[in-house]
């Protein structure tokens, strides 16, 4: 399968960098991966500082794979473990989305909130990701307040499918994470949206485009969908981040012998 072949090539190319771990996240890790439609989201963890040469080697690896099937959907974020928590971002996010933010695409850095266990047709190696505790809640609140809430006020964004989809799905995932301490897939987020009061017409539009054969939308629907989405998301995000129960807590670290929140994803073949 193209996904397996691309991931094998990427992991082989990473070998000289001796990564501590490679984690899958997003749809690839969440059990909702659809070949040819979903992105291949990976996090590479190194145990040495990331230098300009390291960034160059990552960029070279992406360039070597650029003609492989699905290569335009391979996105890699690199972390180093110099602060012992594995949280320091290293080079900028590498891959096809590196330039999308400037083009009006919500392709900002990968969201740690969506790193999760689950079946993957890809690969992951090395140490599992430790539980984030209060840091995760703080991140989710900040992401909703500082990125998504501001984006709601930019009307032009919401005529694009990608903003409607990610805006609503990210809000549902953030809500479930804060209320229940769970990390959910996009499919689960889509199922949760009606119960969160999201406009049913828009939820069904997302479902149809994601899982069925999409029909090009009419201009009238695009405008109506944008209005419905913004009218819902603005107040919904305001209420979520204003809830005192979701105030950022002090960072917590797992004690000795604590079970990691995100277990190692095992590599599958065949």
TrEMBL record:
Matching InterPro entries: NT_sf (IPR043519), Polymerase_NTP_transf_dom (IPR002934)
Q: Where is this region: Disordered?
A: 102-130, 245-270
Instruction: State the coiled-coil residue ranges.
Output: none
Q: Which domain of life is it from?
A: Bacteria
The residues covered by the Polymerase nucleotidyl transferase domain are: 19-51
Q: Where is the composition biased (Low complexity)?
A: 115-130
Molecular function (Gene Ontology), one example: nucleotidyltransferase activity
| Name this polypeptide is given | Nucleotidyltransferase domain-containing protein
Q: Which organism is it from?
A: Streptomyces haneummycinicus
Origin organism lineage:
Bacteria, Bacillati, Actinomycetota, Actinomycetes, Kitasatosporales
């Amino acid at each position: 399968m193209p996904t397996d072949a691309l991931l094998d090539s990427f992991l082989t190319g990473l070998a000289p960098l001796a990564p501590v771990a490679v984690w899958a996240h997003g749809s690839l890790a969440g059990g909702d991966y659809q070949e040819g439609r979903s992105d291949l989201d990976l996090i590479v963890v190194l145990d040495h500082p990331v230098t300009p040469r390291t960034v160059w080697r990552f960029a070279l690896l992406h360039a070597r794979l650029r003609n492989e099937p699905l290569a335009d959907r391979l996105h890699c974020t690199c972390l180093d473990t110099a602060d012992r928590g594995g949280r320091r971002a290293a080079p900028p996010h590498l891959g096809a989305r590196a330039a999308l933010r400037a083009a009006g695409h919500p392709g900002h850095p990968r969201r740690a909130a969506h790193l999760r266990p689950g079946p993957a047709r890809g690969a992951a190696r090395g140490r599992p990701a430790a539980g984030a505790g209060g840091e995760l809640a703080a991140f989710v609140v900040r992401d909703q307040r500082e990125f998504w809430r501001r984006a709601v006020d930019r009307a032009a964004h919401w005529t694009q499918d990608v903003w409607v989809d990610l805006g609503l799905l990210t809000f549902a995932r953030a809500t479930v994470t804060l209320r229940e301490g769970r990390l959910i897939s996009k499919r689960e987020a889509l199922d949760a949206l009606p119960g969160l009061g999201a406009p049913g017409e828009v939820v069904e539009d997302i479902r149809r485009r994601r899982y069925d054969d999409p029909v090009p939308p009419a201009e009238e629907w695009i405008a109506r969908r944008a209005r419905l989405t913004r009218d819902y998301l603005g107040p919904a995000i305001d209420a979520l981040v204003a809830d005192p129960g979701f105030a950022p807590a002090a960072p917590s670290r797992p004690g000795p012998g604590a079970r990691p929140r995100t277990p190692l994803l095992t590599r599958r073949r065949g």
